Amino acid sequence: MLLRDYRFPGRYGPEWGSGGIFGLRYHRGTLYFTLAFEAEAHFVDVKSGEEKVYDFTLLGDAPTSGGDTYNAVETVDEFIYFGGWVHAPAVYRKDRRILFTNKYSHVHAYDTKEGTVKLLWKDSIHHETDWAGEVSDIIYDPYNDRLLLAREDGHANLGVYSLDRKTGKAEALLREPSAKGTVVHDSAFFGVGNNFTEGLREIRALDLITGKWETFRAGESVDGRPYVRPGYGPLASAYNRAFAFVRGGIIAGNPLMGEDFRFFRLFDFYTFYAPFRVNAINTGGGILIAYNAHHDAAYRPDDGFTWATTNTLVGPSVLLYVAPPMVKIVGTFGARVTSIEKMDGKLLVATNSAPNTGSTEATPFDTGNRDITVLDEKILQQRPPTVSFSLPLALPSMAKEMGAGTFGGIPLDGYREPRMILHLSRDNRIRVYEYDLSLPAGEATEETFDVKAGKNVLELDSFGGILSFELEKGDTKGKVRIELR
Question: Which domains can be identified in the chain, with CATH numbers?
Fold first, then answer.
């Protein structure tokens, strides 16, 4: 594969913090991606290395900024459909604000035969502080030959929309905020809920044949303990089930075939460690997904709670291969993974060194260093990399006061010497819940250990699958380190 650039330092692109490389998609000899916040759509002929760059000026005047921050891309026939949002032109103010008057949600089509870009659809409410729902997912409906658009990030025109890919006419099918979806059998499943207030509230299923909707609860946790704020990233389809990747776990199942959705706790640290602003792809019959350490964050300290939960770094971003009942770590990365694609036996992993910020924290340029890492697909079959997670126990202790507090959800598949090191300020007891991603879901088994004030080492090599943990009493001064070797 020939690429003119693998690394992209920050350049002019007014927005909040850093965007990234999004929408990686290889289709009919062309590799597409959008570089945000510079608002550049790249189309690379992978044989010749010839590259075309589009600046989104079909939406409005330059200088443009934005592009896509959710991986809204789909391919049908010779076309690559790419969506998101763009400021055209961008308006940056010196009080660290950006005006949204010229912010457009959009869907474009790139013709791989002709090498041309066409604007298919756009939407804007032309407001200084509010914007029309960004296009965060594009799903092809083969029965009706249309595109389904998911829109959750915004203030108006949220929900699921149908877009005619010939005329560009859009029609609302659901007016509840929805960021992501996936097709399972002959239905399209969509997550519903506001990601920055409540997370995934429920899952709606659209029958592509009849056009009828059904509503399903997110489901109970297999470890039997409560979970909170399941903000969600991508939904994916495999095994005739829908998999919703959320902050703190995976919600998997399919009520349409008689199996309720269940919550499998995974990387639940009561921080913003989550599968946000990244896509999931099918490979080898399973699902490849990333959980990110630092995707969105408050830059300037507020009351301490938001800043702490978004800036506490408990571990690296991890690349996961999900093949039930197994969940396997196959790669470790820095602040965040923004997009994943496979091509010619290789995995393309786009990364970023900095998060999105928000509110009055806009900058006139992108603040991250973004790059594309090329890996061999054989990592899916190799032993997982060494990785560790370090968590201040004040966070699950605060969650305990809110009725939660179970933390972890650490996948042990492939590790021979996993262990937990606890530094405690008081004597305590710790419960260890053991389960895996079996479908239909089973229940976790439980072991309890007495732990003392000071340093405690728990060897975890007698366990398997996935482990979550809960201290009987809160410990606001303690900390825990989980090492996987």
Answer: 7-380 (2.130.10.10), 387-484 (2.60.120)
As a whole number of angstroms, the distance between CA 295 and CA 232 comes to: 13
Strand, coil or helix: what is 305?
A: helix
Distances 420 to 107, 248, 461, 483 between C-alpha atoms, Å? 47, 19, 10, 6
Tokens of 51: 């590259």
Interatomic CA distance for residues 324 and 237, integer angstroms: 12
CA distance 188 to 127: 32
- From first CA to last CA, the distance across the chain in angstroms is 33
Q: Mark out the alpha helices in 386-469 (DSSP H runs).
A: 394-401
Half-sphere exposure (Cβ direction) of 296: Cα atoms closer than 13 Å: 17
CB 469 within 8 A of CB 406: yes
Rounded Cα–Cα distance for residues 316 and 335 (Å):
7
Q: Is the dihedral of CA 333, 268, 357, 61 positive or negative?
A: positive
pTM higher than 0.85: yes
- Are 42 and 32 contacting, i.e. CB atoms less than 8 angstroms apart? yes
What confidence score (pLDDT) does residue 402 get?
84
Residue 155 near residue 104, CB atoms below 8 Å? no
Residues paired with 286 in a beta bridge:
283
The amino acid occupying position 45 is: D
Which tens digit of pLDDT belongs to each residue from 135-167? 999 999 999 999 999 999 999 999 999 999 999
Calpha distance 85→82 (Å, rounded): 10
Q: How confident is the model at residue 2, as a pLDDT?
A: 67
Beta carbons within 10 angstroms of residue 91's beta carbon: 16
pLDDT at 302: 77
- Taking all residues of the chain, what is their mean pLDDT, rounded to a whole number? 96
d(CA 337, CA 401): 32
Q: What is the residue-wise DSSP string for 418-484?
A: -EEEEEESS-EEEEEEEE---SS----EEEEEEE-SEEEEEE-TT--SEEEEEESS--TT-EEEEEE
